[in-house]
Amino acid sequence: MKQFKGLRAARMPHRTIHLFRKGLRLHDHPALLAALESSEVVYPVYILDRKFMTSVMHIGALRWHFLLQSLEDLQKNLCRLGSHLLVIQGEYEPVLREHVQKWNITQVTLDAEMEPFYKEMEANIRCLGEELGFEVLSVVGHSLYDTKRILDLNDGTPPLTYKRFLHILSLLGDPEVPVRNLTAEDFQKCRPPDLDLTECYRVPLPADLKIPPESISPWRGGETEGLQRLEQHLADQGWVASFTKPRTIPNSLLPSTTGLSPYFSMGCVSVRTFFYRLSNIYAQAKHHSLPPVSLQGQLLWREFFYTVASATPNFTKMAGNPICLQISWYEDAERLHKWKTAQTGFPWIDAIMTQLRQEGWIHHLARHAAACFLTRGDLWISWEEGMKVFEELLLDADYSINAGNWMWLSASAFFHQYTRIFCPVRFGKRTDPEGQYIRKYLPVLKNFPSKYIYEPWTASEEEQKQAGCIIGKDYPFPMVDHKEASNHNLQLMKHVREEQYRTAQLTRDDTDDPMEMKLKRDHSEENVTKAKTARMTEQT
């Protein structure tokens, strides 16, 4: 906390509102620590702006439950330290204006965020500060690095490949270490006068916000739950050291990865804490996996997408996005609805979409399969439509990662081996030949023999009757012929990439696949021919 050392000596202690946005935790919270170290009074505030959460963040019912659970947990943890979370419902600007004046506030502290809507919010808070006479202190706490430092080292532009990104990080060195833990003494000396804490500032119940009843989900929100999950995984140091993400199982009935992503997304668990706990385990291991497939590598992918998103216009859209291929996707509301509501007729895809809707989480390879099917694999529907569905349903929905992954999986940017298309039958069968995952999430198919569970339409009418499920009546026929659709779409994508070769090259590393190497040679030969023609023209 070197940057804050001279603050108290130079000025009178502040009266501070600390604004929680993400960062719903007490461990490794540099902005909250800065508030406590520079103030005589600190009001811990969460402004629950329902209009912002629904129209800007687009959060669905499951994430609402996760958010309220996280706020309730934050409230309990603050109470243990002699403080209290003040949840205020309403729109940001009028709520903040009222309470700054009511409490004679001289400082507002908050986490620095990189999403455009959070940047706009911070800019508006700073304008309000100039008007009402309070200072604003924002501190990076949601990511490992300050994305501005990465951009500065890359000549003011985002590194568009993971390889280039890792090179920039090698120049920066390790991330800042987590800040010290907060204590009851920190809050005691900054305790605000007694407030009416009965109804006015309590965490609302889901029913208060007319949120539908909670679905069954293995994830409960909050710092306490997130840290327990963290400790549970770090206890198996051998698993941590050898973790290789592509080898995890997409259709296991329990998560085969850490399942920490919802807690990182909401800021219930600090990524810096996780990073350095991993570093300690790696230091003691004779051998350990490396980025991009290691656990630390997964955190760095998160940083990569944060950095690119922070400096790329229209990152969550195709139009106006300079790194994204401009593709004439089909507009088909009926097909999109079938995909979203698990009615594609492909049990593996429908089981994935059912788990997503019920639990708010699916394995990353399951996300790959569902996204490929919607976009370049089978339906040729825009990645933006899939991104919106994931944004609503995923507990770990994240502006940068969600959009970045959808561009990747649709081969619109970042991913260039576009000839690799996930088969909606064979892919799931490889790791779960008995179809236990399908039987759990699509119980209508549970009585089919294993040889039919991924392709129930191939069972005879008598076998369908024995299974208690008639295809076309109790469960739909496949909505497309996968082989025919994928071959057609492959040709479309090949044509797009030939036409938009320069855009495609922006986000690719040096490791080319054979198809891309051919395209590269073709373009190089074309450029050589053009250069020779130009020279001949000059000579004549």
TrEMBL record:
GO terms for biological process: circadian regulation of gene expression; entrainment of circadian clock by photoperiod; negative regulation of DNA-templated transcription. This is Photolyase/cryptochrome alpha/beta domain-containing protein. Gene3D superfamilies: 1.25.40.80, DNA Cyclobutane Dipyrimidine Photolyase, subunit A, domain 3, HUPs. GO terms for cellular component: cytoplasm; nucleus. Residues 14-144 form the Photolyase/cryptochrome alpha/beta domain. Binds 1 FAD per subunit. It comes from Anas zonorhyncha. Residues 515-529 have a biased composition (Basic and acidic residues). Keywords: Chromophore, FAD, Flavoprotein. FAD binds at residues 257-261, 298-305, 396-398. Coiled coil: none annotated. Its cofactor is FAD. Pfam families: DNA_photolyase, FAD_binding_7. The keyword Nucleotide-binding does not apply.
